Amino acid sequence: MTLRIAHFSDTHVLSLKGVKPRRFLNKRWTGAVNLALNRSRHYRVEIFVDLLDAIVELGVDHAVCTGDLVNLALEPEFEMVHALLSSRFTPDRLTVVPGNHDYYVKEAIADALFEAHFGDFLPGDIDLGLEGTRYPVTRIIDDEVVVIGLSSAIPTPVFVANGEIGRDQLAGLEIALRHPRARDRFRLVLLHHPLLPEPARRLDKMRRLVNADAVIDALRTEPASRPHLVVHGHNHEFKAQTVPGTSTPLIQVASASRAGNRSRAEFNVYVIDDRRLTRIERHIHDPETGRFVPHDVAGRPLDVARAS
Ligand SMILES: [Fe+2]
């Protein structure tokens, strides 16, 4: 049996609708808004809409999103993205995890805005026996795939973009990977932050997963329980690596809304044949036509037949 899973991330939707002007008197807040406004020139909702429509048009079996759906974690942003997603995906067709921007302000964390809006897409198909956390989320897709979604989003100062996977979640990850319902399925792990550092990137130390080594250790379990694929976002460019010490592909997807020539909006499609990853496609935005054109991992155009 063949299954196709689409992966998108880092849409950074901004909306300041209803934000009270007195908030702008706060210097820290003003800095964040200026940064967000600057960012929003490069991250466009209309491209994200085209990308979602392209995924729907492909007729994939499932879609996963690795966070940073919104920009400042304001309620109108969550409402806008929820409307875009829920009009295209029934709850059984999409699984999401949060990124640092989904937890950007402390009010968003206190009110659990991400979970309140996207609860339908945060499944718990495997009972992990954990209390007090809904992560990792678990999704069973037929007899073929189990998706295990981690939350690396933590409260940080506004200009810091680090992440961390808590101890409860690491325990949950180990339980999920070894669970009988995961044993004979393709095991796909999602998280927002990269597992490996990006030393060439400016301010990388303020953008990392702080306990990446512990997460890698948990993923490097005995071969019978290891993930078959680990995917993430955060750095807004495509990258294909492997989880250290294993042959498990570690795939970073580009941003789903990025405009301009430096890096274009993309989503990935993972083709899984009989519980084996047989192909990775990058669907890259063509600003001339507004279409998303399939490419291989090296960026060469592919000829892909559309699902009927
Ligand atoms: Fe991020």
Q: Reading side by side through the largest sheet, how are the strands ordered?
A: 3-2-1-10-11-12
How would you sum up the global shape? globular
Low-confidence stretches: none
Going by CATH, the homologous superfamily would be: Metallo-dependent phosphatases
Bound molecules: fe (ii) ion
Which range does the strand content fall in? Answer: 15-25%
Topology order in helix (H) and strand (E) letters? EHHEHEHHEEHHEHEEEEEE
Content-based structural category: alpha/beta
CATH architecture: 4-Layer Sandwich
| Helix run count | 8
* CATH fold-level assignment: Purple Acid Phosphatase, chain A, domain 2
Measured as a percent range, the helix fraction is 10-25%
Q: Any idea how many domains?
A: 1
Number of strands: 12
| Radius of gyration computed on alpha carbons | 18 Å
Report on the structure:
- With 308 residues, this protein is of the alpha/beta class.
- It has one domain: 4-Layer Sandwich (Purple Acid Phosphatase, chain A, domain 2), CATH 3.60.21.
- It is 24% helix and 20% strand.
- It is built from 8 helices and 12 strands.
- A 6-stranded mixed sheet has the order 3-2-1-10-11-12.
- A hairpin with a 3-residue loop joins strand 4 and strand 5.
- The chain is globular and about 55 Å long.
- The two termini are 17 Å apart.
- The model has no long low-confidence stretch (mean pLDDT 92).
- The structure holds fe (ii) ion (FE2).
- The site of fe (ii) ion has 7 residues, from loops.
